[in-house]
Amino acid sequence: MERRFEKMEMEVCGSLLVVFLMGWYPPRSELSVFDWKRGQNIARLPDTDIISSFRFLSDKVIVVATKGSLDLFTLPEPQDNTGEMLITKVATLRLPFNGHSVEHISFCNPPAKNGNPRSKRQAGDTAVPTKPFANSPDNIIYCYVLVIDGEQFSSCSLVVHSSALLRYATPPAFNYIPWKEWSMITRCVGERVNYNYTNFSGQRWLLPRDNEVWDFNQYRVKRLGRDFEAETETAHISVVTEQSCTASIYLDVYSSLPYVRIKSKREGLLCIDDDRIFAATPDGKIEYLYFG
């Protein structure tokens, strides 16, 4: 049968270009790494039917979404006289859907800006960075997971920092991480359908359906403090630290990554940039709501 690819994703990080091709009929995928400055295809993942998306975590590590887990792979160093090499898997982080069919996983956050890596830490570097969020404003990974069982569908959204995932990339040892061991560094919510790139800016996630912005910058969380709440003319602001339970059609999913919740009091369309939140009011005005 002739192979047809229905989806292509690309991301640049320094001199590396990763190209992901996904085919539906038959369901096969290809992921290749190029040194675009030298015009070399330096690495690849073998053909597989389970990959659905990828993102760079650093200039040495990528995260790959499979059916049931997030897998971390290290990339080889470009060489002058070498051919194509295989990418090395260094960790598997299980998702909380064992025994159920994960139909599809998408990384819906934008790729790293201007080809810059989300983190300058390398594989095996487990030290806690001094300012991981200030230095990496786009250091966020957002997964949209679609689960299917017969005719029933359920979805779950998962947020985690790429710097947190990098702590599990410690070659040469292979790390297998059950969901319970890494759920505390994530925040899961159910049935979120608004996951366009424009809903993310820096550490912030805009939830248009709820008229809210969730800010995952941990410096801001720490600065405001646990149980912080404040009312302004335009918004209610609070820090959420307690564990949450996301109910699906299969099981309850627990997670506890802290965040700042900004609930707008204004009606109308919200939009965000790296520093501000705006609201387009029904009478056509643009209001500036929050600066953090």
Commentary on this structure:
The chain is mainly β. It has one domain (7-291). It has helices at 162-166, 179-182, 218-224; strands at 7-13, 16-22, 29-35, 40-48, 53-56, 61-66, 69-74, 85-86, 88-94, 101-107, 141-149, 152-160, 175-177, 186-190, 200-201, 204-207, 212-215, 229-231, 235-240, 244-247, 252-255, 259-264, 269-272, 276-280, 286-291. Strands 15-16-17-22-19-18 form a 6-stranded antiparallel β-sheet. β20 (244-247) and β21 (252-255) form a beta hairpin. It is globular and about 65 Å long. The N and C termini lie far apart (55 Å).
Element layout with pairings:
Elements: E1 7-13, E2 16-22, E3 29-35, E4 40-48, E5 53-56, E6 61-66, E7 69-74, E8 85-86, E9 88-94, E10 101-107, E11 141-149, E12 152-160, H1 162-166, E13 175-177, H2 179-182, E14 186-190, E15 200-201, E16 204-207, E17 212-215, H3 218-224, E18 229-231, E19 235-240, E20 244-247, E21 252-255, E22 259-264, E23 269-272, E24 276-280, E25 286-291
Parallel strand pairs: 4-8, 9-13
Antiparallel strand pairs: 1-2, 2-3, 3-4, 5-6, 6-7, 7-9, 10-11, 11-12, 12-14, 15-16, 16-17, 17-22, 18-19, 19-22, 20-21, 23-24, 24-25
Quick description:
The protein has helices at 162-166, 179-182, 218-224, and strands at 7-13, 16-22, 29-35, 40-48, 53-56, 61-66, 69-74, 85-86, 88-94, 101-107, 141-149, 152-160, 175-177, 186-190, 200-201, 204-207, 212-215, 229-231, 235-240, 244-247, 252-255, 259-264, 269-272, 276-280, 286-291. It has 292 residues and is mainly beta. The strands form 6 sheets. A 6-stranded antiparallel β-sheet has the order 15-16-17-22-19-18.
